[in-house]
Amino acid sequence: MTDQEVGIGPKVTGEGRNPGDLSPKELIERIIRVDHAGEFGAVRIYEGQYAVLKDHEDAPTIQHMKEQEEVHRERFEKLIAERRVRPTLLSPIWHVAGYALGAGTALLGREAAMACTEAVEEVIDEHYLHQLEQLGEDEPELREIIEQFRAEEIEHRDIAREHGAKEAPGYEALTTAVKAGSKLAIWLSSRI
After folding, report:
1. CB atoms closer than 10 angstroms to residue 29
2. How many angstroms separate the CA atoms of 126 and 122, rounded?
3. How far is Cα 93 from Cα 11, in angstroms, rounded to an integer?
4. Cα–Cα distance between 152 and 149 in angstroms, integer?
5. Over the stretch 108-151, which tens digit does the pLDDT of each residue have?
6. What is the C-alpha end-to-end distance of the chain, expressed in Å?
């Protein structure tokens, strides 16, 4: 059963909003801005992981996930242009930070790279679900994109688990730090 079938999301974007809440237009712009930033960062994480693990047996798996993230990023780049949304001003930071996170965790070992992937994708799953709850039936294209990309992010999380994420040294500390950083990046990118 899909989220729409169980009634997630208002009938119209912005329905039931309170004084001081974003207007529907501002909400859509924020969603597109932050999702574009997130997909940009995800590509950089996988590029960093791949650079370190390119000769490892998991390299094709990392490459597959990176290619899916590139499709996501390109789709949000198209939406930014079509809807004339200002991208985040933090892209230069995410360019460096994403790569550093991917390469840094991969240098700790493949399990740490997979723990990083698991943590990031768990946060993105929750983030996309929250967006679906905010979007109404008046945004069918954006809902469909987010639903599809959310399913692929869940796939990435599951791949990371299957490839030993929980075996990473310091798993709890590592995933807690990555989740906190991901949530901060989402908050900042949606606003700056």
Report:
1. 18
2. 6
3. 37
4. 5
5. 999 999 999 999 999 999 999 988 888 888 888 999 999 999 99
6. 36
Question: What's 7's DSSP letter?
Answer: T
109: Cβ contacts below 8 Å, ≥ 6 apart: 168, 169
Closest by Cα among 133, 151, 126 to 4:
133
Determine whether domain 24-191 maps to CATH 1.20.910: yes
Mean pLDDT of 184-191: 90
Q: Which backbone phi and psi does 16 adopt, to 5 degrees?
A: 80, 15
Decide: 58 and 3 in contact? Cβ < 8 Å: no
CA distances from 71 to 83, 118, 127, 152, 162 (A): 18, 20, 19, 11, 23
Q: Where are the alpha helices (DSSP H) in 19-139?
A: 24-53, 59-82, 91-107, 110-134
Separation between Cα atoms, residue 63 and residue 115, nearest integer Å: 17
Domain range list for the chain: 24-191
Entry pTM: 0.85
